[in-house]
Amino acid sequence: MAVNKNMRILVVDDFLTMRRIIINLLRQLGFNNVVEAADGKQALDKVHEEEIDLIVSDWNMPNMTGIEFLKHVRADEKTKAIPFIMVTAEGKKENVIAAVHAGVSNYIVKPFNAATLKEKMSKVIGEF
Amino acid sequence: MSENGMKLLQDQLNALEDNIKGDTVPAEDVRAFVALVKQFFGGHFEQTAKDGEAFDPRLYGELGELAKFINAARHEFADVSPGMLQEEQLPEASDQLDEIVKTTEAATHKIMDSCEQLQGVNQRIRDRMMTIDPPLDPDVAMSIEDALNEGDTHVTNIYEACNFQDITGQRIQKIIKVLREIERQVFRMVIVFGLRNKGEALEEKDRTALAETEAALLNGPQKTGEGLDQDDVDDILAKLL
Fold it and tell me: Who is most buried in A42, A64, A115, B221, counting CB within 10 A?
């Protein structure tokens, strides 16, 4: 089934620069329907306020970290099925395992490029 | 504690229990017991020395050496002007690093602004090509489209390269945290060694520094060649997902 490029993607990162990079890379890949949040708390509000089809979230954030946000998303019946890609600068095995146990759909190590983002998204939402 | 001392205390405690009347204990009995405890602990070193028990006179010598060492360290520490280090040099170093983060962040946003402008220009050219009348020769149109696509690829490369700001920003923040911790420890030593009398400020400053230290959630970007790269992470995911 063809991927709906109008899907709503939530980009979560406390660094505005990083949000802009991801949003622009998504735009390059043909995804323009993007909302953003600066931490897990804001992001949690977004997933409750709006229909979100995919989450791309940083791990290391103030207020609520990416892993805590992921756990909240997975714990809620309404949001638990949303595909969730974790993006982090820290590639430690225990973190990857913790993310998998928390229900992450895929995991990207920073710095990354558009090809990696496309590949990981394809694994989660299907080829595009 | 000597056996005699222990027996004396136990006897007095037993007498105290025996004298309990209802919910009260005679005040003179309590006073006698407290006096005995004070006497016992006050004379503990002397008593144990007399008894030939565990007390080791070398302890005094070692404590003396330790006192000399601390005193020497205090003088050496005073020579490096800890006040200036803690009040000026370390905060200045942190501020400078903070400025680097802000400057590179601003520059990165400017680069991305220009990239977005370039993408807009490319799109306008595409839109214009669609409306040219008579239409462009297909080969010409194709070569222009190829050139525009190549331009878009370079813009994407620039976005990807902007990752550096996030990574360097996180690394520098990590260094700033270390500097602030050093600043906090130097301040503590200044107070402990009595080199400056600003004890009141210590608590608030300590709390702030401690909170910042504890706020470090993960350790930040891994060093080149350390930690897992994307392929390693993919291997783990392949096994777990």
Answer: B221
> CA B36 to CA B42: how far, in whole Å?
10
All residues at 6 or more sequence positions from A19 whose CB lies less than 8 Å from its CB, including other chains: A11, A12, A13, A36, A38
Give the CB-side neighbour count of residue B228, counting CA atoms within 13 A. 20
Closest Cα in chain A to B216: A60
Q: Do B233 and A107 touch (CB under 8 A)?
A: yes
Closest approach of A123 to chain B, Cα-based (Å):
11
B230:A116 CB<8 A: yes
pLDDT band at B202 (very low <50, low <70, confident <90, very high): very low
Confidence at residue B41, expressed as pLDDT on a 0 to 100 scale:
62
- 8 Å CB contact of B222 and A108: no
Computed over its alpha carbons, how large is the radius of gyration of chain B? 37
Residue B222 C-alpha, separation from nearest chain A C-alpha, in angstroms: 6
Calculate helix-pair angle for B163-192, B90-131, nearest 10 degrees. 170
Interatomic CA distance for residues A83 and A99, integer angstroms: 13
Q: Does B229 touch chain A (CB under 8 A)?
A: yes
Sign of CA dihedral B4, B6, B12, B18: negative
Across the beta sheet with A34-37, the strand order is: A34-37, A9-12, A54-58, A84-88, A106-109
The per-residue pLDDT for range B93-131, each reduced to its tens digit, is: 999 999 999 999 999 999 999 999 999 999 999 999 999
Q: Which residue among A20, A24, A93 places its CB closest to the CB of B228?
A: A93
Helices (H), B80-162: 82-84, 90-131, 138-161
Tens of pLDDT, residues B213-234: 444 455 556 666 677 888 888 8
Say whether pLDDT at A20 is over 80. yes
Distance from CA of A96 to the nearest CA of B (A): 7
> Which residues in chain A have Cβ-Cβ distances shorter than 8 Å to B163?
18, 21, 110-112
Contact between chains at B227 and A92 (C-beta distance less than 8 A): yes
Structural class in CATH, domain A9-121: alpha beta
Q: Is the ipTM, as predicted for this complex, more than 0.85? A: no
Are the beta carbons of A33 and B192 closer than 8 angstroms?
no
